[in-house]
Amino acid sequence: MKKRLGTFYLDSTLSDSGFICLTGRNGSGKSTLLKLISGLMRPDEGYVRVDSKDITNLPIEERGVVLVTPESYFPHFQVSSHLVWGARTRKIAIEGMYVQNVREMLGINYDGKMDKLSLGMRARVSLATALLSRPRLILVDETFSSIDNRGEFIRSYSQLARGKSEVLFTSQQADEDSKLADHLYTIEEGKTKKQF
Asked: What is the total count of domains within the chain?
């Protein structure tokens, strides 16, 4: 997949499944790649496939992809309403016990309005909301970095996602996060390289 933005040129190939980590410095192209996969941007060349389905030209709401950033939350929602918002939007029935299990595993033991929570707590809820909506692919753009005990959180998130959603997450902490991923890619000046 290729995309030119001014003097920056992204030329990326990423083909894997499971829990995938993409590392690189600021400005290397991580967020641009996720925007292309999610449909927020269109590639100049190439395609986006998820589960062997070409979604390149599908509208955002039909792609089966959720992008989670530190700003991905509804400030006026209560935590309990936020968690099930995505599932309700997609008309997916989820049991209360499953929601409670996700809350416990991801350390969401609080309620209240989203705009009253800390950055880390909002991130936990936003990531759980994405998971409960059961998309084919969850894209996580630097959102894990604001969470306390993030290694433990990422392990729990990976366990909950397995068999339900693929996850591609970006990170600037390659050494630490690569141990938590099934596959690791690095990106430098718009070019991705598979490490394992």
From this structure: 1
Contacts of 58 (CB under 8 A, 6+ apart): 39
Low-confidence ranges of the chain (pLDDT < 50): none
d(CA 196, CA 185): 7
Which amino acid, residue 150?
R
What is the DSSP code string of 159-173?
A: HHHTTT-EEEEEES-
Angle at 69 between CA 85 and CA 54, to 5 degrees: 80
Q: How far apart are CA 71 and CA 63, in angstroms?
A: 21
11: domain CATH number? Answer: 3.40.50.300
pLDDT, tens digit (0-9, with 9 covering 90-100), for 44-84: 999 999 988 999 999 999 999 999 999 999 999 999 999 99
Which residue from 190, 148, 183 is spatially nearest to 24, judged by alpha carbons?
190
Structure tokens at 111: 């309620």
User: What residues make up the domain containing 152?
Assistant: 2-194
